[in-house]
Amino acid sequence: MRCRRSSILVFLRHVLKRRLDLDQLWLSAVGTPSCASAAAWLPVGLITPIVRNAETKSLSTISNELKDMVARARARKLKPQEYQGGTTAVSNLGMYGIKDFTAVINPPHATILAAGAAEERPIVRKGQIVAAHVMSVTLSCDHRAVDGALGAELIGAFKALIENPVMMIV
Question: Domain limits at 84?
Fold first, then answer.
């Protein structure tokens, strides 16, 4: 599921690129450019390797960097600058079949996006009940850095983009 974490990071990157107002609010609230992390479980606990300058990288680059950093973290060869700092993280328990959950922010991050399993669920579309693949996400915000309104704007923009991914190329 590394690809899924990477994909979510790319969606977040596109949200901030398309919504410059959110990007500027994020920068003023957090004080640093977006450095995204993906939570990785190790037998000794959780670690969040950081993809620096994620907004400038492709999905394959982000995926390869995460794969490399998680492997080195598991071998205990990750350098402190590769997991210290950062502004936001993605936690994915969908690979374990977890539908939805709330992730706890790993300081000094300001937010963490929790991604649950994508599953087929009944929805109403044009007055008809149809099956659709639905994924639950939850954004936890440290209100000292990112207030709920900014978090709601971010998750709303993320929702709009993930429901219509063709907008990433427009």
Answer: 2-168
Q: What is the pLDDT of residues 42-55, one digit of tens each?
A: 787 888 888 887 76
CA distance linking residue 154 with residue 43, whole number of Å? 32
**CATH number, position 135:** 3.30.559.10
For 135: left if phi > 0, alpha if psi spans -120 to 50, otherwise beta; the answer is: beta
- Burial class from Cβ neighbours inside 10 Å (0-12, 13-18, 19+) for residue 38 reads buried
Q: Which tokens sit at 2?
A: 């590394």
Residue 91, strand partner residues: 114
Using one digit for the tens of pLDDT, what is the confidence trace for 64-120? 888 898 889 888 898 998 888 777 888 888 888 999 999 998 888 888 889 999 999
Show the tokens assigned to 144: 């000292």
Active site residue 133: no
Catalytic residue among 14, 109, 133, 143: 143
Q: How many domains does the chain have?
A: 1
